[in-house]
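Morning, I've got a small favour to ask if you have a moment. Here's the protein in full, and shout if anything looks odd to you:
***
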Amino acid sequence: MKNPLRKRLPKELKSEMGKYIVIFLFLAATIGFISGFLVADGSMLAAYNESFTKYNIEDGNFETGDKINDETIKKIEKDGKVTLYNNYYTEEKTKIKSNESTLRIFNIRDDVNKACLMKGKFPESKDEIAVDRMYADNNKISVGDIITCGDKKLKITGLVALSDYSALFSDNSDMMFDAVKFGTAVMTKEGAEEFYDKSRVHYNYSWKYDKKPADDIDEKKMSDDFTKVVNRNVVLNGYTPAFLNQAIHFTGNDMGGDKSMMLTLLYILIAIMAFVFAITTSNTIVNESSVIGTLRASGYTKGEMVRHYMTMPLIVCVISCIVGNILGYTVFKNIAAGLYYGSYSLPTYKTIWNGNAFVLTTVVPLIIMMLINFVILVNKLSLSPLKFIRRDLKKNQRAKAIRLPNFKFMSRFRLRVIGQNIPGYIMLLIGIGFANILLLFGMMLSPLINNYQESILNNMISNHQYVLKMPVATKTDCAEKFCMTSLKTTVENRKAEDISIYGISDNSKYIKADLPDDGVYISGGFAEKYDIKTGDSITLKEQYEDKRYSFKVKGIYDYPAALSVFMPRKQYNIIFNNDKNFFNGYFSDKKITDIDEKIIYSDITKDDLTKVTRQLKVSMGDMFHMVNVFSVVLYMLIVYLLCKLIIEKNSTSISMLKILGYENREISRLYMMSNTIVVVASTLVTLPIAGAVMKAIYKNVMYEYSGWLPLYIEPKVYLEMAIMGIIAYLVVALIENRKIGKIPMVDALKNVE
């Protein structure tokens, strides 16, 4: 015989249609996006991992000041047990419309670091070029366009993704890549060599080990051994093993981290929805207590009642999971892939149907929903049938009503409503708090980036920082000599990152600080990221050796653009065993024109210093808006469901008030004002909590990246969040006011005890 309780399910669905539709849409959209994200993430990660073999990505590269002769190459290959490949490139200023950027141009590489052709074809003549696909998108150029590269006009024949530049880092020590003003490209050998005589050639060599490393530890050891081999034979300008190369590995690390973040978000949201379901079901049990008591007295077991009240939440959740997965594998998969292609220069991928994603986005949410509802329902339905019939659902002896302050009747009534709905309001507080954390994340980033950019521009040392291959004189009147090198941090349990060490000339007009002879100043960003204070000691090490240097911090210099150490040039040359007159750079507010460009290693300008902000706006601009919309929708959903619950729970009381002559407007003032007080209070209380949570997690997140963006939460963001929350609540309040008006007077007569 079929369970007759099943006949109540369609009736329950019809009466609660609004609630179930809202929850279904939210769950389906959330599961759909997470599912689509995991499918795209898994597919693109598989294509990324496959690219190491498919495109023969290097095990590392090093750069020398001059071309290495064949005899030395053979010696390095023999002693280091590697194969070397020429990987020369030049960097050319490129003008696209009114924007200037830099293209790093390679020959078409057939043996190592091969390119994936995304569109068009590879260049065939010396006046043709294939540029990085993401660089082309960001600069709005396409196949067939003509660009001015250096002093040559070149035709774009194709869009490519270079396997060793999935993230477009122009310098491995940069905090963020730059796909707007920096890009990569390939030309024919003849085309690339035409630039060699006109600009500085970077004599870069890639290597592949003859025997593949067994694991990460073995790769680190092999890299350290190979460093010694190279150092014995040539003078290094740079040395980057592949496992430290951000241009190669930043993308893979980021995609792996995104998966964990998205799943955590999904499970938190599912848990919140499960508790909302459980609370609404508990309210239904209260309203139907006499029916439940009668059924229990008639022979229905507690297990049958638990299964009955779990059925509808699980049906909604199952349908949401199915629809969500269909949307995920179709619509949302393309959206997620678009977000990745908007940030990284990835090769073409093929969709891989991800069984793991199905389990994580369907099976696990169902288990979470079942467990939370099961625990709460078992607890709620454990009373005797007689207690249900009497509508006495208190497990313990009924406590006396709390004596309320001698306020006016309306105020005491509202306090009583709040006191009777504490569980629902606690859930409301948690939901609003989580929504506000997400909303703060979305709203704070744009002001944070703008503040960082403004701070950089206001605290620039000079318009140009020239780093030279060798000391060369200039007649530029505002040029000031300095020394510069890079050392690595040695903080335990943190990845080593580059610290720029400056030797500053006496009476500098660019660095306005009284630098001590027996200590150093450090940049504000360095101090803030590593919690360094005046009087502390810091230890740094050489990049390619284990030689260490300890410095006493005598002051903090306001320079947020980089992690830097400042000392007098005289002290610098003593510490690094240089001639007392040595220098390798110029600060200058004017462009230096009387030094051969082949001798200039780099020219750091405001474009270089602001690449982080520029790229973040391009990569994450759409994400900011998505997070904001999602947070507001979550906020409205939680408020709607729990306000609806409180109105339904008090429907008998509302009906009685109508019998006593109260108008709908007065009743709304009693009940909706109680909700308003709690919602506004929850919003205001959770705003500083959201700020504290963001501060707590921000530094840990930033430790994963090189460089430092100071945390800045614009004060008006909190005001905007509060206003958005209140407006969202007003929309919900209008809907609930209509519901109060529809409650009939007869409800009070139906439940007379």
In short: The longest strand covers residues 152-162. The mean pLDDT is 83.
